[in-house]
Amino acid sequence: MKFTEFNFNENIQKGIESAGFKECMPVQEQTFQTILENKDVFAQSQTGTGKTAAFLISIFQLLGEDKHFKGQKALIICPTRELVVQIEEEAKVLGQHLDFRIGSFYGGVGYNEQEQSLADGCDILIGTPGRLIDFSKSGKIRFSEMGILVIDEADRLFDMGFLPDLRKILSKMPAADMRRTMLFSATLNAKVGNLAWEYMNNPGEIVIEPEQLAVEAITQELYHVSAEEKMKLLLGVMKRDKPDTAIIFANTKHTTYEVAKRLEHNGYHAKCLMGDLPQKKRLKIVEEAKEGKTPFLVATDVAARGLHINDLSLVVNYDVPTDAESYVHRIGRTARAGKTGKAITLACEKFVYGLPAIEKLTGQKIPVSWADEDLMVEDKSEGMRFHFDKRAGASGDHQGRRDGRGRPRNGGGVSRKYSGGNKRPLDARAARVQSAVLAVSGTMDSVDEEIKKSNTHNGSEKQSISRNRKRKNSYKGQKPTDNRSRNRGENKAPASLPMERVSSKNSIEDRLAYYKAKYGEDFQADKGTIKSFKGGSKSGNGGNRKRSGRPVAQRSGNKGPVNNSHANKGATNKNSSSKTSQNPKSARPVNQVKEKAPVQKKGLLSRLFGKK
């Protein structure tokens, strides 16, 4: 059906002609018919089916021709900034012959320009939930003035956690029967359905099956390849197909940055697009891609929806997406508006397990192609390491930088965790999985069995490594402070000793056993001393004993040196006795003998440990 068959305003028809639209796409035709029946629109439609033009043309027609909506405003809610900007651009093309003022409102940029747009007056507001609510709180946007509401990519809004914000906005808008609501979603899940029936008035359902978008219009290829060879295969595909424009999708921002840098080193003008980039830089990269200044984009799923590049030649899934629906959205960047396109997926051992869900969703097996040696191209960046940081998008990388002592800086290279496996040879487990995948030519029947065997084999080894790592880390930072703490284990009494310290309550036999164990068999006691001690004789020296009961060397003031029965060992223990004499707190007997020293009266220690 042609656009001219609908009774649109002549200025709307001029805008449609300026955009180059002639034949209506299914979602457009059904949306126009539902709106003409005075019903709300509840549509399941993938990106690339023309839904943006469907609701924009409907808004123009209602605001310009329907007496119920004349003088009112329209609100379009989107999940991402990129989608907001894209819808605004398309609205300006389709509405270039109309008098409607269009404004976009999203976070990541300053408020001044957007506030000025509101002050000048906006008939059609396009924005993300957070920024719209911010302006609502300040009174600059009144949701009660909105007669038309469009919720685009509803399932994506739910995934990003915007459901509470949506409910807050809807609660401040006119009642469902007083406004016209259009809801578009890639999937009609329970959350989307509940929102539709709660906040919409007798909506007409439109369902555009995914097969009409991706499977039939796009040539798909699947290559099973090891992680270390993915870059070589990507370069081979680019050399073989020679695309004018391409988007390469990766699952992580680190891989995205690394692949973009490797493409640059191999002569391809590529830039990375991810959520961590500053908003102005993201918008600039998207604009350059649309203008053809940046022919190759490497992106995370932040660019999988809402990004429209005319005549996109090729989409490459460098990583198999972990979410099956993301696959459909990724490859939907090509073959838009009835054109054909090509999508290539590189399945490595890390992400190959996402294939069954994708094939179940699309309803067919992705054709498998063989990656032979002729398709591999030498990677000029092989061996280089690339570090990603949030300043992103810095044009230079940090490869090979070292500090003054020759060590890599923190920015000297991406860690192995985020390296995508491009730095290591394929390990045994990965080789087994790769072999199994290649053997079944894309089917996944035998892969699960291989993975179970691999996990069973490696489970005990991983646990052992974890225990060793914990044991090693438990001593981290513990350093001996001196020789005593370092040699504490040598001087400590064995655990089998009958006591931990000497007390006056211990018998002479226990004390003797203790000191023998602690200081060696040199400590002896003559029978007379033991007999005298048992008899209760303390020889008046009890006051020279420490309160702990531990025997100490007797001091005799200036009358002469300390003497004890252990002096006969002085010849062999000269060094140790010298050290002990410097520490009066030591329990070890002091061995000092001076020439011609007068014989002193024996103290308790001397009598107790006399000559054998």
From TrEMBL:
One of its GO terms (cellular component) is cytosol. Residues 1-29 form the DEAD-box RNA helicase Q domain. Residues 217-383 form the Helicase C-terminal domain. This is DEAD/DEAH box helicase. GO terms for molecular function: ATP binding; hydrolase activity; nucleic acid binding; RNA helicase activity. Residues 32-206 form the Helicase ATP-binding domain. Residues 567-587 have a biased composition (Low complexity). A motif (Q motif) lies at residues 1-29. Residues 456-466, 555-566 have a biased composition (Polar residues). Keywords: ATP-binding, Helicase, Hydrolase, Nucleotide-binding. Belongs to the DEAD box helicase family. Residues 387-430, 450-504, 528-612 are annotated as: Disordered. CDD domains: DEADc, SF2_C_DEAD. InterPro entries: DEAD/DEAH_box_helicase_dom (IPR011545), DEAD/DEAH_RhlB (IPR044742), DEAD_box_RNA_helicase (IPR050079), Helicase_ATP-bd (IPR014001), Helicase_C-like (IPR001650), P-loop_NTPase (IPR027417), RNA-helicase_DEAD-box_CS (IPR000629), RNA_helicase_DEAD_Q_motif (IPR014014). It comes from Oceanispirochaeta crateris.
